[in-house]
Amino acid sequence: MFVVPVSRRSNTYAHPLSHLLQDRLERAFCAPTECAAITARTPALDVSDNDADYVAVLDMPGVAKEDVKITVDGRRITVQAERGAAAGTGAGAGTDDGKRLIHRERAAPAYARSFVLPADVEQATTQARLEHGVLTLTLPKLQARSAAHITVN
Predict the structure, then answer these.
(1) 68: CATH
(2) Residue 136 forms beta bridges with which residues?
(3) CB 139: neighbour CB atoms within 10 A?
(4) Closest among 138, 141, 81 to 114, alpha carbons compared
(5) Domain for residue 111, yes or no?
(6) Is residue 150 part of a domain?
(7) What is the number of domains present in the chain?
(8) Residue 97 has what pLDDT?
(9) Which regions of the chain does DSSP assign to beta strands (E)?
(10) Of 4, 8, 71, 129, whose CA is between 20 and 30 Å from 43?
């Protein structure tokens, strides 16, 4: 007799419908606003490369440009955003115009994504543009420094 280690999320030996049942149970015991507040969504990402720079495109609907934070650390790029429009969570939370919220199903999503590029990028000339829920990052490649000639005195 032998034991085969199987994790809860392993699909090798699990029944195909077990994931569907698990997801339904998680949704049943977690309110939509609470689930959205607990976990950040991972936005879809496309990265293209040309001779001069990398271009990263991320889908982040419902986010204002003031709510986006981008960190460039060598080759690692981190993008975080949290929609500030629905700051209060749960029933009874107030709104800006003094109305009392009775029921909420629309959650304020939080987005987080980190990725590593093949080469370092120039932090000073990096550009970001957010239009219609699509964030476009233009990340210029760090140019190799040329050799310097030193004269001997």
Answers:
(1) 2.60.40.790
(2) 57, 129
(3) 25
(4) 81
(5) yes
(6) no
(7) 1
(8) 76
(9) 45-49, 53-59, 68-73, 76-82, 110-116, 127-131, 134-140
(10) 8
* pLDDT for the residue numbered 95: 58
Q: Is residue 65 in some structural domain? A: yes
Burial pattern 18-29, b for ≥16 Cβ within 10 A else e, equals eeeeeeeeeeee
| Unique residue bearing structure tokens 């939370």 | 93
Can you tell me the distance from the alpha carbon of 6 to that of 18, in angstroms, rounded to the nearest whole number?
A: 13
Residue-wise pLDDT for 36-47, tens only, equals 555 678 899 999
Q: Parallel, antiparallel, or unpaired for β 110-116 and 127-131?
A: unpaired
CA 36 to centroid of chain Cα atoms:
13
The percent of residues in the chain predicted with pLDDT above 70, rounded, is 65
Domain that holds residue 91: 18-140
- CB-CB contact of 150 with 127 (8 Å): no
SS3 content of the chain, % helix, strand, coil (to 5): 15, 30, 55
